[in-house]
Amino acid sequence: MKAVIFAGGTGTRLWPLSRKKSPKQFEKLIGDKSTLQLAVERLSPEFSYKDIYISTNVLYKDVIRKQLPQIPKENYFLEPEKKDVGPAIALVMGTFYQKFPHEPVAILWSDHLVKEVQLFKKILLVAGDYIEKNPDNIIFIAHKPRYESTNLGYIHIGKKMHTMKKISLFSFEGFKYRPDEATAKKFFKSNTYAWNLGYFVTTPTFIYHSFKRFAPNIYENTQRILAHMGKNDYESVLKKEYKKVESINFDNAILENLDKRDALVMVEDIGWSDIGAWEALKEALERYPYENIIRGKVYLEHVRDSLIYNYDDKKLIVGIDLDEHIIVNTQDVVLIAKKTSVSKIKTLVENFEGTEHEDLI
């Protein structure tokens, strides 16, 4: 079984720590390891390093190889320019289609936190066993909702279809992306909707044939690239052809078009969190509501429900009488915001384009 970890995002909502040159998945958000390193670490030893692949932008090649020297160099997929996830998955699955077309593959992401690691690995292996016997299927890995999130996608689950090693597999009834507050509350109470993690297990053949059927332009573009695999001109052809491919999300290109009968869903509580924004990181790390989450040199009095990260060892952050604040201090920026205002960070950073602050993006 193979595992592919996608690590090409920019993570604007975790600015000022996450920048274009060094996105969030390479930064030490939790302890002394990046979330990318943690994503690889939690697959071991069930997955050998030769079976773990990384898909990212060529800009991040050096930082990833420095953080993950144990991953073979030939296991990197380097996009020559930023596109959406659709073309990236096509390139990976097209390559696998040529090498091991029917072997189960897990698609994972580099910027998540998973606390129940043993259960997570068990789910992947059980899904792999099922796909090995049913190579024309796809299994979505979902999570029991902890609260009524309006920032996450949901999977509609149906009746129980199978049980393997005490893991249940349910029928797949569809997706719902970022519901409004009222709908999220209904989903949370219904027990028939679960958070969509973006994780799935299937075979290269299933996905690559799906591109051929539902996204022929991407498929044909990938075919032109793969025709030069192993040749001296592969890199130049990749750069030339990848520039032409449309930028489209994988969900829109493929998943939303699949026959529901080809999909199953696993729903478990693996202690998963999408730490794509500061308030999400706080929620993931807090042991109880209203706890302060701090890092670095920080001194607080009468402060509650705040996240304060200080990456400057020469400076002490002192907080007094604060409630629900996010404070992040880097070498060149200090961010101070209410926890409820973190969603505005992305727009603020985008507005730096073409200004005197553009170098801070």
In short:
This is Nucleotidyl transferase domain-containing protein. The protein is of the alpha/beta class and 361 residues long. The protein is built from eleven helices and 17 strands.
Radius of gyration: 21 Å
CATH class of the largest domain: Alpha Beta
For the largest sheet, list the strands in their spatial order.
Answer: 6-9-7-8-10
Count of distinct structural domains = 2
Task: Give the topology, please.
Elements: E1 2-6, H1 35-41, E2 52-57, H2 61-67, E3 76-79, H3 85-99, E4 105-109, E5 112-114, H4 117-133, E6 138-143, E7 154-164, E8 167-176, H5 181-190, E9 193-202, H6 204-214, H7 216-226, H8 234-242, H9 250-253, E10 263-268, E11 272-274, H10 278-285, E12 293-295, E13 298-304, E14 307-310, E15 317-323, E16 325-329, E17 334-338, H11 345-350
Parallel strand pairs: 1-2, 1-4, 2-3, 6-10, 12-14, 13-15, 14-16
Antiparallel strand pairs: 4-9, 5-11, 6-9, 7-8, 7-9, 8-10, 16-17
Helix pairs in contact: 3-6, 3-7, 6-7, 7-8
GO molecular function, one term: mannose-1-phosphate guanylyltransferase (GTP) activity
Domain Nucleotidyl transferase: 2-288
InterPro entries: Mannose-6P_isomerase_type2, NTP_transferase_dom, Nucleotide-diphossugar_trans
